[in-house]
Design brief:
Multicopper oxidase CueO, binds CU-O-CU linkage, mainly beta, Immunoglobulin-like, binds copper (II) ion, seven-stranded mixed β-sheet, six-stranded mixed β-sheet, 4 helices
Length: 492
């Protein structure tokens, strides 16, 4: 069969364009910020993937693909080292795959792109898979997550080969938090003063559905296919926890914001702006893979698709009645707004931000590395058309691109043509350099996704431990990923 990527016959556009919604959009900062419902306290959860209709924009009905009936799906609260299983049943019109992003997960549960959860009665022949022999299918798949890892914000999302981008766009994303006693003993803001924030842009078609250029790869060969598919799909509506430009009432205390960029392709550069134009500091306490050693203060914080930042925002000196807007410096028009906090109550602050947050960050040295590898992330020829390539090759499920040994420390040198947020499964990494110089302030800590900027190179250092087996690395611009920018990593 044809893959979505191989079917492309158009030259990749480097910038893309924003899809314009065809329904009336609400003003910013009127819809209250939803907080996804929480699953906790059990060692097994059952999630039914199903289509629902929801009112995302006031007065507009939107069909979604969901984990358990909502977008985002439920937030799973878990404890370090306490394994859970999550049984996913597929009642969607299409096959799916679940990946826990940032999880230290055995390969059988990591959501390999051809390990499908299929709807009952689905026949996977002729539906665009490269190699039917590589496909494993079940109607319900039980994923096992040992969660033997640093506490952090993870997220789960669809990962089906060639179809991740449209599936996530339609709603298949949810958050998962890992906690432990040591982190809880720090006295960071918690309870009502801790908020998960899943930021994702979307566009809405005239019938209220989420507008996406095409989910049928054969259509991609036809004239009139919308351009942004190739560079990445961008919407004109910014959703936070599934609500458009929401507002949250807050007290005059510190809040811990667990920020995730779950957008397919949109980058944000966030800042917190007061009514009078002054900015509040964003105090970063954690990265993709948990707490930093010490806090890092930012005036603005760039966040690429799939990255997470753990940030303290202090409303302690903000006058009651003020609005603090979180805006995107990279946006224009409606995509400049993200969300707002309305400071409504004076309150004593029970939290503290310790000078030292954690002492268990891996400190691999260059001399620990047993090998250095080079990877280019570039557009290129793919089949009869254009796609996105790693090391000059598009993804193939039956080819091992990298073989390493359990326990080996490696340095990876990456180079990009355009923006590529590169994600490595299983192993967290440290960023050693950018363009031969120092990493950026927000590169601190343990990461699982690095945002390569146009023309930039970066060096990562990591240690492959945990499990043997087949894993992935790929660009997390979801359209790039679907169009070839993914590779296999075998840990032996
Ligand atoms: Cu968030 Cu391989 O993905
Ligand atoms: Cu990319």
């Amino acid at each position: 069969g044809l893959s979505g990527a191989a079917a492309l016959s158009r030259r990749p556009s480097m910038t893309g364009a924003v899809l314009r919604s065809a329904v009336p959009l609400p003003p910013a900062y009127q819809v209250p910020l939803p907080v996804p419902r929480v699953l906790s306290g059990a060692d097994r959860y059952d999630i039914v993937q199903r289509e629902v209709t929801a009112e995302i924009l006031p007065g507009v009905t939107t069909r979604l693909w969901t984990y358990g009936g909502s977008f985002p799906g439920p937030t799973i609260e878990s404890r370090r080292g306490q394994p859970i299983t999550v049984a996913h049943r597929n009642e969607l019109p299409v096959p799916s795959v679940v990946h826990l992003h940032g999880g230290r997960t055995p390969p059988a549960s990591d959501g390999y792109p051809t390990d499908l959860v299929v709807p009952a009665g689905w026949n996977d022949m002729g539906h665009g898979m490269h190699d039917p022999r590589a496909v494993t299918s079940t109607v319900t798949r039980t994923y096992t997550y040992p969660l033997d890892q640093r506490p952090t914000l993870l997220w789960y999302h669809d990962h089906r080969m060639d179809f991740t981008a449209p599936a996530v766009w339609r709603g298949l994303a949810g958050m998962q938090v890992v906690r432990d006693d040591a982190e809880e003993a720090l006295g960071l803001p918690s309870g009502a003063y801790e908020l998960p924030l899943m930021i994702a842009d979307r566009a809405f078609a005239a019938d209220g559905s989420l507008d996406y250029p095409s989910i049928d790869p054969t259509l991609m060969m036809q004239p009139g296919v919308k351009e942004p598919y190739i560079a990445g799909v961008l919407g004109d509506v910014v959703l936070v926890n599934g609500a458009p430009w929401p507002v949250r009432e807050v007290d005059t205390v510190r809040y811990r914001l667990r920020i995730l960029n779950a957008s397919n392709a949109r980058h944000y550069d966030l800042e917190a702006v007061l009514d009078d134009g002054r900015r509040l500091d964003l105090v970063q306490i954690g990265a993709d893979q948990g707490l930093l050693h010490t806090p890092v203060t930012h005036r603005n914080l760039p966040i690429a698709p799939a990255e997470r930042y753990d940030v303290i925002l202090d409303f302690g000196r903000v006058p009651v009645g003020s609005m603090v807007r979180i805006v995107n410096r990279l946006g224009s028009g409606r995509t400049r707004d993200v969300l707002a906090f309305h400071v409504v109550r004076k309150s004593a602050d029970p939290s503290r931000i310790p000078d030292v947050l954690s002492d268990d960050l891996p400190e691999w040295k260059r001399s620990d590395a047993v090998r250095v590898r080079d990877f280019s992330f570039r557009a290129g020829q793919m089949g009869d058309g254009h796609g996105w390539l790693i090391g000059g090759r598009p993804f193939a499920p039956d080819r091992t691109d990298v073989t390493t040994r359990l326990g080996d420390v490696e340095i990876w040198r990456l180079v990009a043509d355009v923006h590529h947020p590169v994600h490595l499964h299983l192993a967290g990494f440290r960023i050693l350099s950018r363009d031969g110089g120092d990493p950026l302030p927000h590169d601190a800590g343990l990461k699982d996704t690095v945002s390569l900027r146009p023309g930039e190179s970066a060096e990562l250092i990591t240690r492959f431990d945990g499990y043997r087996g087949r894993y992935l690395f790929h660009c997390h611009n979801a359209e790039h990923e679907d169009m070839g920018m993914m590779a296999n990593l075998e840990i032996t």
